[in-house]
Amino acid sequence: MQSKILFFDVDGTLLDTARGIPDIPQGALYQLKRIQEQGHKIFISSGRPKAMINQYLLNVGFDGYVLANGGYVEIDGQSIYEDRMDYKLCVKTVQMLEDLRCDYMLETADAVYIDPSYHELYDFFSQAGMKEMFQLDFDKDEVLKRTIKIEANVLNKDKAKIENYIQDKFGSVIHHDEHGSENAFEFFSPTISKAVGIQKVLDYYHVSRQQTYAFGDGLNDMEMIEYCEVGVAMGNAVEALKQKADLICCAIENQGLERILKILFPDEV
């Protein structure tokens, strides 16, 4: 079989703490290693920045990472692509969030910066075991010049105001989900997507989209599921993603990843 490149979302695909699966299931981990031994490449493709990829995942031995929704790409420990937000837009966005008294954190290629007085976000990620990822003492203006993504916790009363701001200033729709009781909004360059990050990987290896597989469960996986030659939605995926996927496997708690990898990449005879 010609060498392929596989891209995996993290939460809800490789693992899912909400479902009591904090690590990659052993069966799926075995399949990932077996596939690498066949000569294929495996990548994490996540909305997370590098600082949110814990040591356990780093130790798995992925060939690289497409992170921050495609805003940062790393292969074999080397950065090959970074798409920072426009500095003026960063400054304007942060000022708007501070005026609304919204907690926010700044995500760069190698770190996450937050004011510890922003208890909604700081406490949420601390309770999730991610406290160590935060840099608390920093020059905000200097960090804004390197920011790839801003994540903010927005009160429900301000949600419409934030969405209107985004339409006006960014000209693109902002992804949001739930972190506890309020809305977690992600602000990033409209030129960013997981599909863009994946293409940077393909350019690096000089291979075509026909050599790619994508595995995901959420709305921010839509671009890569549509972009890759074979898009696989988890059984626990949102319905919109399932409708776009080429294949649907079992849910993560039912060994979905292990089963589909066995089928797609059988042992070589």
From TrEMBL:
GO terms for molecular function: hydrolase activity. Keywords: Hydrolase. InterPro entries: Cof (IPR000150), HAD-like_sf (IPR036412), HAD-SF_hydro_IIB (IPR006379), HAD_sf (IPR023214). It is an enzyme of class 3 (hydrolase). Its EC number is 3.-.-.-. NCBIfam families: Cof-subfamily, HAD-SF-IIB. This is HAD family hydrolase.
